[in-house]
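A quick aside before the break. I want you to see a complete sequence-to-structure record at least once, exactly as it would be stored in a machine-readable document. Don't worry about memorizing anything.
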Amino acid sequence: YVHPDNAGRGLGKILLRHALASLREIGFEEITLWVFKNNVPTRNLYSSLGFQETGQERIDERWKNPEIEMLAPSKLF
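That is the input. The structure line, written in tokens, reads:
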């Protein structure tokens, strides 16, 4: 999570790249995540780092918002 006051500075991308590199180092072959469907900036961030939408959707139980699944094979990150 990056506080909205710091949005647009590239911090999210830096943090996510570090997390993906760490996961790759310990042997993860793919990463799956869920993101709110209406959170277009975050979906774009994930896409820029190799994540692709799988077509799977669900409703988040806590927030009652639609989410979409995104997947990145380790060869893409």
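Two observations worth writing down. The helical segments are 11-25, 40-48. The longest helix spans residues 11-25. We'll return to this after the break.
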